[in-house]
Amino acid sequence: MNAPAESKLMRATVRGRVDSSRVHEKKRYTRILTPAPDPYSRPQVLEVRSDAPIGARGDEVTVVVGLGGFSGPARKVADPETGEIVMRTFVTHVLDLVE
Predict the structure, then answer these.
(1) What does 30-74 look like in DSSP terms, one character per residue?
(2) Domain boundaries, position 19
């Protein structure tokens, strides 16, 4: 099986409605609500990081993002099956606008 072109790796297309945006440390974070897959499901909520605004609240947008993320510090949590306290590391996903 051939690998896709390098420029396509770690990319995704996000389509939805701009719900809100905020600025933190010179980066804009835009919250996008995606269409629900069916009438009985909730829409997904994604946050896209960019240098410039993606759109105004209520705008329908389609953007290409780069996929990334990082591991946070390990935390003690109770295993739901056994009740045993274990150390877990959670991952934070990051979607960066491909500009």
Answers:
(1) EEEEPPPSSTTSPPPEEEEEESS----TT-EEEEEEEEEEEEEEE
(2) 6-97
